[in-house]
Design brief:
Rossmann fold; binds zinc ion; 10 helices
C-alpha cells in the first residue's frame, strides 16, 4: 500500500551515500543552506524526509539574536522543531512504522527516567533532547533539513490526505493544549489571551474547543488580530489604540482565566489586573531574561493562581489527533510556503508580524 520506494541513503559500511540541504544557523543574521551528510540512524531510529516545517518565534530569536532566552548559540546547528514528513529509512528495531508512512514528529526526546518524566511531566525532563535548540551542548539539530532522525516514539502517523504544513502545527497546538490543561476546565469561562502570535491564536482555538464561551485576544497590531478572529476569538482589542483598554470599563476584572502569550511584562501586568478574584493567570510566553517586576500584591489580595506553562507532554498526541480529524482548522494562520533553499527569505517574511503568521519550509 505504500507508494514510496525506499531511498538508498547509506552504503553497506554505514557511510552516507547522499548529502542533504540543511538550514543551519551560524550566528545573528547568519543563516546558511549547507550540504551535510545525512545523519545515520541507530536501530531504533527512523529517517524522515521533511514534508513541511513551520518557523517558530524561537527560530526567529536564533536568527536575529543568535540565541533565545538564556540559551546562546555556541556552534552552528540546524534549526526547526515544528516538523512533519515521510519515513524513508527504518531501523531494524522499529516495529510500528513503515517506509512511506507520513508522520508528525514530536521534537521532544525526553529521558523517561528522571523524577519529572516518571511523574508524567516529561516537558520538564532533566535530560531532554529538543530539536533545533541550543539549550544543551553539543546543540541538538532540528528538522529544517531534507532529512532528519527521529525515534519511533516521536513519530505520530497522520492521514494520507493531510497537508504536512497542517501536521507541523501540531507542535504549537500542543503548547496551547498544555496551557489549557494547566488552567483546568474552561467550560463556560471568560478567557483573555494577550498576544496574537501563532501561540495566541492557537490558544483561542484551543479555548473555544475546550468550552470557553468568551475568548478575548489583545495585540498591538491589527493584522494578527484579523487572523485571531478567524481562529476563534470572540472579541479582539488592539491595546495600542486605547490607553488602559483592559483595565477600564466592562473589561475590568472580568476574566476567569488569562493566558499571557506575548512575552511582554506589561501584558502580564494587565492579565493580573483584569482577572477576577479567585481566577487564574497562565504564563505561556517567554518574558525577558532575568527578574521581572509585577503587581504581585494583586496575586495575594485577589487570590489569583499564577501558573507557568512550558512546552507540552502528552498533548502532542492530542494535537495531532485534533488536526487529523479537522476539529481545529489552522489554515487561516498559514501565511506562505518556501522551499528550504529560500530559508533566508522565509525567515525575513516570518519576522514581519504585519504580513506573516506562520511561514512554512518545504523540501525543494
Ligand atoms: Zn526525563
Amino acid at each position: 500500500m505504500w507508494q514510496t520506494q525506499p531511498v538508498h541513503i547509506f552504503n553497506v559500511d554505514g557511510s552516507s551515500l547522499l548529502n542533504m540541504k540543511a538550514c543551519t544557523i551560524h550566528g545573528p543574521k547568519s543563516l546558511e543552506i549547507e550540504d551535510r551528510p545525512i545523519p545515520k540512524p541507530d536501530t531504533n531510529d527512523l529517517i524522515i524526509r521533511l514534508g513541511a516545517g513551520g518557523i517558530c518565534g524561537s527560530d526567529l530569536h536564533y536568527y536575529h539574536e543568535g540565541g533565545v532566552g538564556d540559551f546562546r548559540l555556541k556552534k552552528p546547528f540546524i534549526l526547526g522543531h515544528e516538523v512533519a514528513g515521510e519515513v524513508v529509512e527504518v531501523g531494524s528495531g522499529v516495529e510500528s512504522l513503515k517506509l512511506g508512512q507520513r508522520v508528525a514528529v514530536n521534537p521532544t526526546r525526553a529521558c523517561l527516567r528522571c523524577p519529572e518524566c516518571l511523574s508524567g511531566r516529561s516537558n520538564l525532563c532533566r535530560d531532554v533532547f529538543f530539536y533545533g535548540s541550543a539549550a544543551r551542548v553539543p546543540h541538538v539539530d532540528g528538522g529544517f533539513a531534507e532529512y532528519f532522525i527521529a525515534t519511533e516514539r516521536q513519530c505520530i502517523p497522520i492521514p494520507e490526505t493531510m497537508d504536512f504544513r497542517v501536521a507541523a502545527c501540531a507542535e504549537p497546538l500542543a503548547v496551547t493544549g498544555h496551557a489549557a490543561f494547566r488552567a483546568g476546565s474552561l467550560v463556560g469561562k471568560r478567557v483573555l489571551i494577550t498576544g496574537a502570535g501563532p501561540i495566541g491564536v492557537l490558544l483561542a482555538a484551543t479555548c473555544r474547543f475546550s468550552g470557553a464561551t468568551d475568548v478575548v485576544l489583545t495585540d498591538l497590531l491589527d493584522e494578527p488580530l484579523e487572523t485571531a478572529k478567524k481562529m476563534g476569538a470572540t472579541e479582539t482589542v488592539n491595546v495600542s489604540h486605547v490607553e488602559n483598554a483592559l483595565t477600564k470599563g466592562s473589561l475590568k476584572s472580568a476574566f476567569d482565566v488569562a493566558f499571557e502569550a506575548s512575552g511582554s511584562l506589561k501584558a502580564l501586568e494587565s492579565c493580573i489586573l483584569v482577572t477576577r478574584v479567585g481566577g487564574k493567570v497562565v504564563q505561556v510566553g517567554s518574558l525577558p531574561p532575568g527578574s521581572s517586576a509585577a503587581p504581585l500584591n494583586k496575586i495575594m489580595a485577589k487570590e489569583i493562581d499564577l501558573l507557568g506553562s512550558f512546552r507540552f507532554a502528552d498533548e502532542y498526541r492530542w494535537a495531532v489527533d485534533v488536526l487529523s480529524r479537522g476539529w481545529i482548522d489552522v489554515t487561516p494562520m498559514l501565511t506562505k510556503t518556501f522551499p528550504l533553499s529560500d530559508a533566508v527569505q522565509a525567515f525575513e517574511l516570518a519576522s514581519d508580524r504585519r504580513r506573516a503568521m506562520k511561514v512554512s519550509l518545504v523540501t525543494g
